[in-house]
Amino acid sequence: MSSFRSRQRSQAGRHFIRPAAEHEARKPEAPAERRAPVQREAAVRPPRELDLFAPCPRGLEGVLARELAALGAERVEAGDGGVGFVGDMMLMMRANLELRTASRVLLRLAHGRYRDERDIYALALSVDWPRWFDVSRTIKVKTDGHGSGLRSLDFVSLKVKDAVCDRFRRAQDARPSVDTRYPDVRIQVYLDAEWATVYLDTSGEPLFKRGWREETGEAPLRENLAAGVLLLAGYDGSQPLLDPMMGSGTLLIEAADIALNRAPGRLREFGFTELRSYDAVAWEGVKARARQAEKPVAPLAIHGSDRAVQMLVKARHNLGRVGLAGAVTLAQRDVLDARPFAESGLIVCNPPYGVRLDEQDALAELYPQLGSWLKQHFAGWTANFLTGDLRMPKLMRLTPARKIPLYNGALDCRLFVIPMVAGSNR
Q1: Domain shared by 333 and 414, yes or no
Q2: Which parts of this chain are annotated as the region Disordered (predicted)?
Q3: What total number of domains does the chain contain?
Q4: What CATH code is carried by the domain that includes residue 231?
Q5: Residues with Cβ < 8 Å from 411, sequence gap 6 or more?
Q6: Which are the contacts of 210, defined by CB distance < 8 A and separation ≥ 6?
Q7: Whole-prediction pTM value?
Q8: Does a structural domain hold residue 184?
Q9: Same domain for 54 and 171?
Q10: 207 contacts 104 by C-beta, under 8 angstroms
């Protein structure tokens, strides 16, 4: 048993959740009539100290922990698939707005041992749900688990939904409605072999949905993973950066947001605005301070290219949607035709990795060419490749300085970090 899980048991299991919630399918915007505002109730004063958990793509826990520490979070504890922390309502709002690598920000409301669904029902019933949201809000319950012996996680969700409704009936003789597509309030349950934890989702839609994406390539890189790759590569906005396989431009946009210190959640809404404790004035202040910290948009030392003209069109469109038209330099070219535009810098990219045998054979032919291309043209640069093809460095005939395990969804990947020193690796 890992030291993290040991601490979890001894502390009544503060947090343990894999980021399954981040694998939700992308949903279309709700119809306008469905999103009609409901009458606001008076705000309820929240606890001064909130027990929070931020899931993230596996492999980014350390990066996320550093982000949270920089925001002023307390008792920051990285685990498998996320980071637990403590803060007040203001910190929760800032975390949703400003974290680059988190998938969600969850508020822990209950935690306890269970043997069957009845124990989980009782645990959920112990939560004072009317304290957190009004009966007029619609709800959705989602259950994830690892090592649970229960036969149906969907049945657990049903029992938790029943507990929420029963608690409202006792207090108000009314119950909230369920909306599995566009809920106002999302409730997340996590089960391991012994413990159940009930969370209130303060984010709403996953945080990798920044609020701008329309166009994507065949396999777009999720925004929070892209940001994590950049931060693991050491990018802070000051170095020249090149993505010679840019696809729809996700890495370029995340890099520009880092360089301009722009909050990644500035274009979207969040689930905490549906809670009783929501303070609209405080939230406007949080957003205003984030806007004041932004740097003005100007041409950046960020270049991207792709051999497919349709990717160039999509990337240009996406950059325009986030107000970065002209700030990032784009070109249509084959990767082997890309050249450095500074004496040193970072190459960061997510090259294709084949699934079919013919794709793997094609990549096996490409990798030695990539190795030669780097040696001939990019001395002084550091190449960072996120790939699920673990053959890549060997076939490139280059030795990575670091091999960082990451997960792109369920796919086991590596971030290969390869410094290109003049005269080396020849």
Answers
A1: yes
A2: 1-43
A3: 2
A4: 3.40.50.150
A5: 388
A6: 223, 264, 265, 267, 268, 322
A7: 0.87
A8: yes
A9: yes
A10: yes
Neighbours of 49 (CB within 10 A): 13
Q: Using alpha carbons only, what angle is made at residue 17 by residues 12 and 22, rounded to the nearest 5 degrees?
A: 160
Mind listing the pLDDT tens digit of every residue in the chain (426 residues)? Answer: 333 333 333 333 444 333 333 333 334 444 433 344 444 444 566 678 999 999 999 999 999 999 999 999 999 999 999 999 999 999 999 999 999 999 999 999 999 999 999 999 999 999 999 999 999 999 999 999 988 989 999 999 999 999 999 999 999 999 999 999 999 999 999 999 999 999 999 999 999 999 998 755 555 799 999 999 999 999 999 999 999 999 999 999 999 999 999 999 999 999 999 999 999 999 999 999 999 999 999 999 999 999 999 999 999 999 999 999 999 999 999 999 999 999 999 999 999 876 555 677 888 899 999 999 999 999 999 999 999 999 999 999 999 999 999 999 889 999 999 999 875 544
> Which of the listed residues 150, 169, 201 is the one where a domain comes to its end?
201
Domain-located, residue 30: no
Residue 81 tokens read as 């698939």
Please report whether residue 170 resides in a domain.
yes
Q: What is the CATH number of the domain that holds 70?
A: 3.30.2130.30
Tokens coding 25: 């399918």
Instruction: Output the six-digit token pair for 103.
Output: 């998938």
Asked if 103 contacts 206 with a C-beta cutoff of 8 angstroms, the reply is yes
**Domain assignment of residue 391, given as a range:** 223-263+295-420
Q: Residue 209 domain-assigned?
A: no
| Same domain assignment for residues 341 and 246 | yes
Q: How far apart are CA 200 and CA 164, in angstroms?
A: 12
